[in-house]
Specification:
- The chain has four helices and two strands, in the order αββααα.
- It has helices at residues 5-17, 39-48, 51-59, 63-81; strands at 21-25, 33-37.
- Strands 1-2 form a two-stranded antiparallel sheet.
- A hairpin with a 7-residue loop joins β1 and β2.
- The radius of gyration is 17 Å and the shape is flat.
- The two termini are 19 Å apart.
- 0% of the residues are buried.
């Protein structure tokens, strides 16, 4: 997902509050937090599987054009992040 912990942690806390995931610290290394999807999260995941196809269809781009567009966006983000 390429997200830093400052972005990821609050998102995971909200998902845990909604019982979509469970967070558990590793016994071997307390710095590591393992994430497990719950039954509720799995149901939501299965419901959302159609979203990528729907987005592609609504974009008017074919899959190859979308891949090129995605690579361009990644390049732009990488270039902008280089200035941070």
């Amino acid at each position: 997902m390429d997200l830093d912990s400052g972005t990821l942690t609050p998102m995971l806390k909200r998902m845990e509050a909604q019982t979509l995931v469970r967070r558990k610290r590793s016994h071997e290394d307390e710095r590591v937090v393992n994430i497990q999807i719950t039954e509720e999260g799995l149901a939501l995941y299965e419901k959302a599987l159609c979203i990528p196809q729907m987005l592609l269809a609504s974009s008017g781009l074919d899959p190859e054009e979308m891949l090129k567009f995605n690579e361009q966006l990644k390049h732009i983000i990488s270039s902008v992040n280089a200035f941070k």
